[in-house]
User: Fold this.
Amino acid sequence: MTEYPTALGASTREKITLLGHDLAEDVMGEVGFGELAFWLAAQRRPSRGETRVFEAVLAALADHGFTPTAIVTRLTYLSAPDSVQGALAAGLLGGGSRFLGVTEDTGRFLHDVLESLDGLTPEDDAGWDAVALRIVRRYRAEGRFVPGLGHHVHKDGDPRTPRLMRIATEEGLFGPHLSLFAAIGRVHPQVLGRTLPLNGAGVCGAALADLGLPLELLRGFALLARTAGLIGQLAEELRRPVGNDIFLSVDLNNRSVPPEPYPANGTDAPH
Assistant:
């Protein structure tokens, strides 16, 4: 008979095991949700410090106001109040290159830079600054944006960034990804001619990468955090609904204009 081995959840008639432990006796009431989420993904139980950093990341990404993901969740619930799962899914599907996906993009970017160093990581801030300066100059020359740099609201500094860096430092988990990210924050004005904030989504990606979590799952952790935030958005929508007002603000203020056909060759499409 074919077997399908798993180190995650498995059940018998009498017992449920999870990560090799008795779910009812060893996990429920003993392991926090953030710790469990880390454990499930890494297949190892995190230390207290790792749990603190990880849960700080989840808190940082849970909710950031009326972002598109929050608005679409509320509007989907307005349209289909019988489908909470549809409303949550709609919000999560909006996690991409502008919102939430920056966590993964930044982690991958930093990891690729570190890989290019062939293990020869700098020993001090001056060394990290030199690496960061080289990378920012290269991205500027290629017309590319550095992930994790800039924020549409927190133009003078994202408050989540220094806080998460302090927590990682306190727990001895300020690793190479965070070191490189911090260096980018110090040197980029020399190249760009202006100062941009290191955003919260980016620092979360750096922190998660320093925890050794799979790069392929970094966006998943951002979505895990935002799920809690979207549940909060729905809870508030039940008490103080705004979805219908958002809908009507568009529906009652639309303006008919002549159509602008796309060119036959598909180029020069209107924006």
Q: What stands out?
A: The chain is about 55% helix and 5% strand. Residues 101-213 form a domain with the Cytochrome p450-Terp; domain 2 fold (CATH 1.10.230.10).
